[in-house]
Amino acid sequence: MGSLPRTLELFYDVLSPYSWLAFEVLCRYKNIWNVSLQLRPTLIAGIMKDSGNRPPALLPRKALYVKNDVRLLGQHLQVPIHLPKDFFFVVFEKGSLTAMRFLTVVKLEHPELLEKVSRELWMRIWSRDEDITEPQSILAAAEKAGMSTGQAQELLERVSTPQVKNQLKETTEAACKYGTSIDVQPSTAAQ
């Protein structure tokens, strides 16, 4: 009889390409590594604000490094990742607030679908250069991940409720307490 799995929490935001890479590796190997993966939707903007850090893409040398690093890691890990054509508009203007609130509701109400819905939102933004902020975009991602239209619409209607806002804020604060400060890629915690 094997040992009990260790719990590993992944704090992530679909706006972070590094989060997607970590997510795919952890999902791929969680059984081999004997870990119970706990997905924790988090808001990267909140982490940046809390830490006082500037996003790497705003620093020219780091931006160049990230662009090459993400491409190479995507190839190595076999994740179909590509930067959006209008990267700055997508990342800094549109953001991911509604998408992350939606994932928070999914975690609360249908945790069994969280992995698939998260992956589909990442595929939209980082693989197909599609929107993740408009209601129809979020609904399309949820439906592609296996959620019924009715379920998805019901959850989308809850993204602005105090319960969902507070839960996302609490999860983001928990990530900050673990010491996440640069991006969401290092924000895993084993218990």
In short:
The protein is mainly alpha-helical and 191 residues long. Helix content is 57%, strand content 9%.
Question: Would you give an account of this structure?
Answer:
With 191 residues, the chain is mainly alpha-helical. It is 57% helix and 9% strand. The protein has nine helices and three strands. A three-stranded mixed sheet has the order 2-1-3. Helix 1 (17-29) runs parallel beside helix 3 (60-77), helix 6 (114-127) crosses helix 7 and helix 7 packs across helix 8. Mean pLDDT is 90; it is low at 181-191.
Give, in order, the helices and strands: EHEHHHHHHHHE
Mean pLDDT: 90
Enumerate the strands of the largest sheet in spatial order, edge to edge or round the barrel. 2-1-3
Largest sheet: 3 strands, mixed
Distance between the termini: 20 Å
Please compute the radius of gyration using only Cα atoms. 16 Å
List low-pLDDT spans: 181-191
What structural category characterises the helix and strand content?
Answer: mainly alpha
